Amino acid sequence: SSNPTRAQLESMLAALEGTKYAVTYASGMSAVDAVMKMFRPGDHIISSDDVYGGVSRLFNRILSHYGMEFTYVDSSNPNNVAEAIRPNTKLIWLETPTNPLLKVTDLEAIAKIAKEHKIICGVDSTFATPALLRPAEFGIDIVMHSTTKYISGHNQIIGGAVLTSDEEIHKQLRFVQKAIGA
């Protein structure tokens, strides 16, 4: 369930992102799926309306069958996110810049909204990479990268990573990594 090469990669990615922990996966989509496995039937997730197609397919065509609820909003306006919050909202899932329209979200504003409501906030920061954006510095709980794209030079490898400084989130993600072989 572990090896020195992967441990070194995770250590380096966490250092680049400015987080305590990184957990790597077999693909970017398996990284997103691992995050979603932290939630249960009846949980509500707010998502950016312009996300990678694989993410919307996962949400709409797979996870919705397990009782998870999704609301899509233009997250470039923080009021849209705040207005979409329900009592059962457990996660705000952002992508910035988005794929393919390159919408930009004010991460500091969204992190503040999430913290006020005790909601986890995650960001797919694949397009920006840690060279241009480090979402954890804005109060974001979870940062995800498809390492298949820019971190690796685009399609040199297939992989994904989820980064956090929250020990409990890290433990959950590590368990999923081991349990499902992702």
Mean pLDDT: 95
> In this structure, how is the largest beta sheet organized?
7 strands, mixed
Per the principal axes of the C-alpha atoms, what is the gross shape? globular
Extended strand count: 7
Helix content: 25-40%
Structural class: alpha/beta
Terminal CA distance reads: 10 Å
Radius of gyration: 15 Å
What low-confidence regions span 5 or more consecutive residues with pLDDT below 50? none
> What fraction of residues sit in β-strands?
15-25%
Encode the helix/strand succession as letters.
HEHEHEHEHEHEEH
With strands numbered from the N-terminus, the spatial order across the biggest sheet is 1-7-6-5-4-2-3
Number of helices: 7
Q: Which oligomerization state do the chains in this entry correspond to?
A: single chain
Question: Can you put this structure into words, describing what you see?
Answer:
There is one protein chain. This protein has seven helices and seven strands; from the N terminus they run H-E-H-E-H-E-H-E-H-E-H-E-E-H. By secondary structure, the chain is α/β, with parallel strands linked by helices. Strands 1-7-6-5-4-2-3 form a seven-stranded mixed beta sheet, sandwiched between helices. The longest helix is centred in the first third of the chain and has 14 residues, at 4-17.
